[in-house]
Design a protein that fits this description.
- The complex is a heterodimer.
- By secondary structure, chain A is α+β, with helices and mostly antiparallel strands.
- Chain A is built from 18 helices and 21 strands.
- Chain A folds into 3 domains: 143 residues, Dipeptide-binding Protein, domain 1 (Alpha-Beta Complex); 110 residues, Periplasmic binding protein-like II (D-Maltodextrin-Binding Protein, domain 2, 3-Layer(aba) Sandwich); 213 residues, Dipeptide-binding Protein, Domain 3 (Dipeptide-binding Protein, domain 3, Roll), CATH 3.10.105.
- In chain A, strand 6 and strand 7 form a beta hairpin.
- In chain A, helix 11 packs antiparallel against helix 13 and helix 17 packs antiparallel against helix 18.
- Chain B is built from 13 helices and no strands.
- The two termini of chain B are 27 Å apart.
- By secondary structure, chain B is mainly α.
- The chains are: A alpha+beta, B mainly alpha.
- The interface between A and B is medium-sized, with 27 and 20 residues.
Chain lengths: 521, 288
């Protein structure tokens, strides 16, 4: 009997001990985001897309940061900057005392190293940055001053500066292997200074990060202690998870039917924002028979824009017939673009010199059922004008790999170009300048010296009038060439847990910067 | 070997097997006559976005899907894909599994061991898991689904044939044929194979149901033929987004898969009872 009682006491003590540490833990706040695509790397310089933006915004900092909507460029790691009169030299003054996660101070040398690293690794934002900045053209003038000398004056350099995410140079050098700039190591580690510190990473699942109390930007009175970004492949699973409360946020790319369901859920709110996100088919201009402008025009006439935008998406989007968002400057307002017209499509096919003698591959993204629906609508239209199709799908990172070369990219791929900086160059510039081949935005593999020239003019000049004219002219040519199929520009319908406050939506990052967010009581 | 007439008579007496046979016959008729039976045969490809997600009505007996296509018509054409996958996958598994089983069963030695160990390796991994791995690696398409299913189902036939061949080797007629100088080829194909046909047929029938279910699972996971193929598993996957409101969208292909798999399983069980005298006796005894 005594024996049994002793055991009971031991057991009770154990239970009490086991539950004790969880009492302070319960006060910790946690946030889970269900992402459509996997986090295949934690390297902030390896990706330049929305699918992996949470890594960059939460674990890393840049000199400047895009905030709010309409997006404003705010000083972040830098306190201020100056531009030389010839527009070639940008000098940034760094904030003093800003710390990396390991406690080391962020210096101008780290910024220099980061810029060089992007250019050397040739991934993510490198293709864009390389048009403005050469390797070796960044200098640390002193501990807190960094200077970039551009190849030519650029209207968008400052807009791209936030993408130069600053990594801990000393830490990366320690983990370098065969002069790889620490790329192998950083794939699954953290060398940042961001608001959150990586605690767990699994490429098949996602990442978990805890709050970095020592971040240079003062924290508000309320915040989330731990954030998790997790791959959840199916729209339906994400929606059910939001309704059940398993996830507190998910991407704003959901089909309209799902948004409707979420609106009815008691614990979910939909944050609606004007945004700039164009859905389009990239058409592989380098592969026969798509090399023929008439075949491309036929394809542009064969998509049922109204059926897709109004019926399938329930009118939650607005037709956008050119590769610049309607609500931005640079759009040639007189260009009507293409409408669904099978007779015109057939007439164009009749004019084509190239014969469409094989099925066209139409790529879409796994995990984004809207892209699958768009691909199906396209396949249906093409079938009616006698073109066979073969649908093919990949997860986003795998599709990005395929879109690097004209040989591996599908004939058509449907997805979105979101906002990475609010300038027409983010769309038409990066999509149709032949210098950008290899990035996912340029997977139409379009090459036209006239358009290249216009886009260069627009980038070199800082005069808005000249730039606007150049973008309008370039857009006219690209639309006439039917270099792609542009479907719509959309609003953002972001599902978030109802009790979340402080979500700071910006078209750049889609509100995934978690440092502002907290739970209302 | 029993004659076809004998088997059919026996089957007709087994009510559940007969039901299975009727289900399979219905499936075959559906698949064959799909263009005639379908109310909107063009909807295999055609879309009508304005009419999406309508409930069952006189115009659309089983409602419409997310693209406004007729669920009933697509269901009928889906039967063709289902049968195609089942027949080719099971057929290919037979072509591989039976010879492997015969060779491994007839010869004693390292070849026999090697063949059976290879099939053991395949059997050690659950079929669905292996099929998912193969289909994902090769990319989602109809031929790849069939390949994945064939590559993972043949060991079942190899196992059955191996065991039966080994058992038959002790039979007098096999030994005497061998003593007469028959070649191994002649012996196995002309004498052994016909005598082990029953278990193979039973296995094939059950395998059809099993394969169709796995194919639907692959389709559901997005590893099946790409859209707009009216494959049943894919249709269910598409429909999940619209549950519970558009209940008809998931129910129709779900029931179709259920009935088809049940049909093959009931028939397989019935065939086994008829063809395997030991089991038949057991069953008669139980029925009494």
């Amino acid at each position: 009997m005594t024996d049994r009682r002793t055991w009971l006491i031991v057991l009770l003590t154990l239970v009490v001990l086991a539950t004790m540490p969880s009492i302070p833990a319960a006060a910790q706040t946690r946030f889970v985001f269900a992402n459509e695509s996997p986090y295949d790397t934690m390297d902030p310089h390896a990706a330049f897309d929305v699918g992996r933006v949470a890594v960059r915004l939460n674990l890393y900092d840049g000199l400047y940061r895009w905030l709010d909507n309409p997006p404003k460029l705010e000083p972040w790691l830098a306190e201020s900057h100056t531009v030389s009169p010839d527009g070639l030299t940008y000098t940034f003054k760094l904030r003093r005392g800003a710390k990396f996660h390991d406690g080391a101070e962020i210096t101008a040398e780290d910024v220099r190293y980061s810029a060089e690293r992007i250019l050397a690794l040739k991934k993510g934002a490198a293709a864009l940055l390389a048009t403005m900045l050469a390797p070796g053209a960044t200098r640390a003038l002193d501990r807190y001053t960094v200077q970039f000398t551009l190849l030519k004056p650029s209207a968008i350099f400052l807009a791209v500066v936030p993408e130069v995410h600053v990594v801990n140079a000393a830490l990366l050098k320690k983990n370098e292997k065969d002069n790889d700039w620490g790329a192998a190591w950083l794939t699954s580690n953290d060398a940042g200074s961001g608001s959150y510190m990586l605690t767990r990473y699994d490429p098949a699942v996602g990442f978990i990060a805890k709050r970095f109390a020592g971040h240079f930007m003062p924290w508000g009175p309320k915040y989330i202690d731990e954030i998790e970004f997790r791959l959840v492949k199916e729209d339906n699973t994400r929606v059910l998870g939001m309704i059940k409360g398993d996830y507190q946020g998910t991407g704003g790319y959901l089909p309209n039917d799902q948004v409707k369901r979420l609106r009815e859920a008691p614990n979910v709110k939909i944050i609606e924002q004007e945004s700039m996100r164009i859905m389009m088919f990239q058409v592989n201009n380098q592969r026969s028979p798509l090399t023929d402008v008439h075949v491309r025009r036929a394809i542009s006439y064969a998509f049922d824009y109204d059926g897709f935008n109004k019926d399938i998406l329930g009118g939650s989007v607005e037709r956008n017939p050119v590769p610049i968002p309607n609500n931005l400057w640079g759009v040639p307002r007189d260009v009507k673009g293409y409408a669904y017209d099978l007779d015109k499509a057939k007439a164009e096919l009749g004019k084509a010199a190239a014969k469409v003698d094989r099925p066209l591959t139409v790529g879409y993204l796994q995990g984004f059922s809207q892209t699958e629906q768009a691909a199906t609508v396209m396949a249906n239209g093409l079938r009616k004008i006698g073109i066979d199709t073969k649908l093919t799908s990949e997860l986003w990172p795998a599709m990005v790999e395929r879109m690097k070369k004209p040989e591996t990219s599908p004939d058509l791929v449907v997805y979105w170009i979101s906002t990475y900086y609010a300038d027409p160059n983010n769309w038409i510039g990066e999509m149709f300048h032949s210098g950008q081949w290899g990035t996912f935005k340029a997977s139409s593999f379009y090459k036209n010296p006239k358009v290249d020239e216009l886009l260069d003019v627009a980038l070199r000049s800082t005069d808005r009038k000249i730039r606007e004219k150049a973008y309008q002219d370039a857009a006219r040519i690209v639309v006439d060439d039917a270099a792609g199929v542009w479907i719509y520009n959309t609003k953002y319908f972001g599902p978030w847990a109802k009790n979340l406050e402080g979500i700071r939506f910006s078209p750049i990052g889609n509100g995934q910067e978690m440092r502002w967010v907290y739970y209302a009581k | 070997m029993k004659t076809v007439g004998f088997v059919l008579t026996r089957l007709a007496r087994d009510r559940s097997a007969l039901f299975g046979l009727v289900l399979i016959a219905a499936l075959l008729v559906t698949a064959l006559l799909a263009p005639i039976l379908a109310t909107h045969p063009e909807d295999v490809f055609e879309l009508h976005p304005a009419e999406r997600l309508r409930g069952p009505s006189a115009a659309h007996w089983l409602g419409t899907d997310r693209m406004g296509a007729d669920v009933y018509s697509r269901l009928l054409f889906g039967a063709r894909i289902t049968i195609l996958i089942g027949v080719i996958a099971v057929g290919a598994s037979l072509m591989v599994g039976v010879p492997v089983g015969l060779v491994a069963g007839y010869y004693h030695g390292w070849l026999s061991d090697a063949l059976m160990r290879v099939s053991d390796v395949f059997l050690a991994v659950p079929q669905v898991v292996l099929a998912i791995a193969i289909a994902q690696t090769l990319g989602p398409s109809l031929p790849n689904v069939i390949l994945a299913l064939s590559a993972t189902y043949w060991p079942w036939f190899a196992r059955v044939v191996y065991a039966e061949t080994r058992a038959l080797q002790k039979e007098v007629f096999v030994e005497s044929t061998a003593a007469l100088g028959a070649s191994p080829w002649r012996l196995t194909v002309l004498h052994v194979l016909p005598n082990i046909a029953s278990p193979i047929i039973v296995r094939a029938s059950i395998g059809m149901g099993f394969t169709i279910l796995t194919a639907a699972a692959l389709g559901f996971l997005g590893l099946g033929p790409p859209p707009p193929t009216p494959e049943w598993g894919r249709t269910i996957a598409e429909s999940r987004e619209f549950l519970p409101d558009a209940w008809w969208y998931a129910t129709a292909p779900g029931l179709a898969i259920f009935l088809t798999v049940m049909g093959f399983n009931l028939l397989g069980d019935g065939l086994r009872d008829v063809l395997d005298p030991r089991l038949r006796r057991a069953r008669i005894a139980r029925d009494d």
